[in-house]
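U., I forgot to send this yesterday:
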Amino acid sequence: MNEYRGLEGEWHDLFWAEEEVNELSLLDSFLSEIEGPSLYLGSGSGRLLGPLSEKGYSLLGVEASEEMVSLSQKKWPETQVVASHWEDFELEQSYAAIVVPAFTFQLLDKPQAALEKMRTAVGEDGHLYLSLFFPWIELSGELPQGKWYPDQELTLPEGKIGKMWTRHKVDERKATLKREHRYQLLDASGEVKREEMTRQTIRWFADGALERMLSRSGWQIEKEIQNFGTPLEEGEDDLVYVITIHCRAVTPSGGGKK
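Result:
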């Protein structure tokens, strides 16, 4: 799974702050029905983990990037976070629920195996929260493949500017989106003072494929929320860009390829 480091880690929350959608309320609603400790997979810098912990939820963060864990502990010293990849995380107890927000699930190298471990991590009444997005813009060709385009820009202290450029490649057969990001720190004159490159592979899932994968892993969908529950404004398209799923633990269906 992609680990956030360097400028990507430092600027992650600043870029997210510009987004209109806040997943915190959906997580709050989900966890309000959970009794017992929960795992937060991909807790990052604590952007969501911290406020949820302050509300009194018993959450243990699992984060692959040690840099992000340090940021989390610096800003939210009372939260509990373990620096570990999910496949390496040692299950020492049973959890009431697992939450995987912010599309983290789509960065996992082996999603089927990850779901099976999540099922193992919870009891018979366990629950799962997932948020996933579908790359309509990339698939539509609105953004040309293989070409850099300006993605994000930040105004930083002392007149400095942070820029992120992106280029991508779609593999529809494998249902993967490969992204490269170029991060640039510019001084007040516009001169590039620091530049870093990162890569990530994002998987998307058709409804039927996702349901089968969940079923084989011992999960049953109980609720689906489209586009973070944001009402459509007049003239907006009705495409589902983001789906949030609540699942409960069941007996695995078995069969099929992983």
